[in-house]
Design a protein that fits this description.
This protein is an alpha/beta fold. It contains 28 helices and ten strands. β3 (434-437) and β4 (442-445) form a beta hairpin. It starts with 12 loop residues before the first helix and ends in a 9-residue tail after the last helix. Pfam families: HECT.
Length: 730
Amino acid sequence: GLERGAKNQFSTFSSFITSINQKKEGIGNRNSPTQLVIPNIKNVRDLPPICLDVRQKQRISIDTLPQEAKAPIPPEPSFPIRTKTVQDFQDDVEKAKSSGDWKAVHNFYSTTFDSFLEINAAFKKDTSSPFNTIEDSGIDAKFVNVVYDALLNTPQDVQKSVLKGIINGLLQEWKGPRTKDDLRAYCILLQNPQFSNTSTYVIYAHLLRQIAALTEADHHFLVHWSKKITQRRFKQLVDRLLQFISLRLFPAKPEEFPPMVKCTWWIPSATKVLSLFNASNSLISPPIISYTDFYNSTLDHIDLMEEYHNWQCYGNSHRFSFCQYPFIISIAAKKVIIQRDSEQQMISFARQSLVDKVSRRQKPDMNMLFLNVKVRRTHLVSDSLDELARKRADLKKKLKVTFVGEAGLDMGGLTKEWFLLLIRQIFHPDYGMFTYHKDSHCHWFSSFKCDNYSEFRLVGALMGLAVYNSITLDIRFPPCCYKKLLSPPIVPCDHNTLVGICDVTLDDLFQIMPELAHGLSELLSYEGNVEEDFYSTFQVFQEEFGVIKSYNLKPNGDKIPVTNQNRKEYVQLYVDFLLNKSIYKQFAAFYYGFHSVCASYALLLLRPEEVEILVCGSPELDMSALQRSTQYEGYQKSDLTIRYFWDVVLGFSLDLQKKLLHFATGSDRVPVGGMADLNFKISKSETSTNWLPVAHTCFNQLCLPPYKSKKELKQKLIIGISNAEGFGLE
C-alpha cells in the first residue's frame, strides 16, 4: 500500500496502520535512495482521545505548583540497552552506501522509532538519570542531528519504517499525565525532516495535535528545552510549521489532504506548537531568530477582518483565530487590520455627527465629517496644538489640513506636509519638550518639571493621528518608547492605574544614553571595592534650569552606600528612575494623547518594534525597488528622459534621495509595505523644458518635462526638490 502510484487507497487511518504492520519487508540489498511517497488518505479518524486531566489547561508553571497538586511521578520505565554511538551509526551508513546493504541501518531506524521508550533509549544522554529539569532536556542533540541528516538519503523502505514507528507511538493509549520521557520523544519527533514532505502531513498533524494538547506545565518544559536547539535547526522547525499552515490553507493539490471539514484542528494545532517556539525564542537575548521569521505571508491573503472580528467577539475562547497568535501575522497584514479598523471608526464617528446634527434640525455640511485643522505657517506649533485641543471630540474623524493663505486642497499631500513640518519644530531642542542625544541620534523626554503637561498629551495625539491616518513620521524615539507606549496596550478604566511603566534594562539605556550606560556597566564589572573607590549612595543628581536637584532611588537612599553586594540593585533603580519615574508625568500625558486617537484592540496585536514601523516607516531607501515599481503616464520606461531620470536619481546622495521622496510624496519615509506601496507615478508634463518638475503629493505623482539632456534634468530636479515647501493651484 506504500508503493509508488498508491495502487490501494485506504479508507481509514487505522487500516493504513494495519496494512503497514502486515507488510513483509525484505532487509536484503536495497535500491538506491528514493523519494518517500505515501498514498493520499481521504478519511482520517481521530487518534484516541487524550485524558481529560491532560487536555485541561492550567495557567501555571510546574515550578509554582503546590506539592499536593502535583501529579504523582510514575515509576521510571525499564529502558532497553542501546549502545550504538554516533561514530558507530556513521560507520554503518558509510558501509551501506558502499555495499548497498542497508540492513544494519534499517534495523537501527525501525527499532529506534518503534516507540517513545526506544526513542529515549537511543537518544537520552544517560538512561539512568531522570533529567526532570527545564535546563537540560537530556537529549543527545548531536546524535539526533546525525540520524536525521542521514535519514532522507536512505532507501524508501528505511524511511517508511520510521513513519511506521511514529504512527505506533502516536496510537498508544495514554493513561495519566505525560512523563518527561514522553516530552523528550515529542521534542525529538518534531525535528524529523520527513515532515517537510506533504505526503507525511497526516502523521505530522496528529503529532502536532498531541503536543498542542499537553498541559501548560509540559509546554513549559518544551519551551525551555527548545531554546537549546541550534539556530539553523530552530529556523527549519519554524519554517516547517509555517509551510504546513500555508499548504493547509492554500493546498497546491487539494486531493493530497483530507477534506477541510474533517481536519479543522490541523491549523490550530500547528499554530499552538508554533507559539511554543515563539515563546522559546523570546526567552533569549538576543533571540535565536528574528521575530519576523515567524511571519506567515500567506495570511496576507485571507479575510483578515473576519479573523479580527472573530477575535473581538470570542476573545481567546475555544473559537480559533490567528489574532490569538499575533506573532504569526506580518506587519503588512497588521497594518491592513489597523487601517480598516480606523476607517470603520472614522465612518462611525462621522455618521454619529450627522445624526446629531439632523436630530437638532440643523443643516448638515461636509466639514462636520472631518477633523479640519487650519494653521498658519508662521505659527505652526501654537495653531496646531490649539486646534487639536479645541477639537478633541473630532480626533477620530478623517484629518484635513488647510494652510491659511494657500490655495492647496488637501487630498493627502497637505496633511503629510503638516506632519513633517510640525514634528520638525516640536522636536527642536529650543522647544524644550524633548532632549536630543547625539551619541544615540534619538530624542527622549525632558525630565524638567512643569505646571502643565498638556503639550505632551497633544504630541501623543499627533503621533496617534499619524498612525490613524496612515502617515509615516520622521521621529527618532528609542525602542524603549514604544515598549512603554504598549504598557498597557489598552487604556485601563481605573485612572489611578499607572501607565507607560515597563520593565527596563541597561540595554534600553544603551539605546538612549550609551555613555552613561557604559559607565554603569563598568560599575557592575568592577573588581575592586565599589564602596571605597566610588563613594556613591542610592541618590542621583539632575540639573533643572541651572539648579542641581537630588533624588533618592529608595527611601533614605542618600544614607545607603553602593557596595559590591547591592550594585546590581543600584543600577536597576537608576535605569528605572531615568526611563520611568523621572519622566512619568510627561510620558503618561503622551500615552493618553496617543491612545485618545488610536484606542483599538488592534494594538494588542503589535510588538513595540511593529508600532515603531507603523509610526516611522522604514528609513532605508531602496531607489532600485522604487524604479521597479514605478508607473508611467505619457512616458515609457525605455524613453530617454526616464533613463536620464533614473541615472541621476540612483547617483544621488542619500540626502538628495530623501528630498526627492519628500518632494514627490510629502514624506521622506518608506511605508510598511516598502517602496512598492508608494504607488509612485511619473507623468509627462507637456510644458516647456524651462519649467521645473511639479509634484502632486496627494497621489505620489511627479510631473516631469521632457528634458533633452541628463545635465539639464539633474539641474532642474535638484532645484525643484531643494525648494519644496508650500502649495498652490494653477
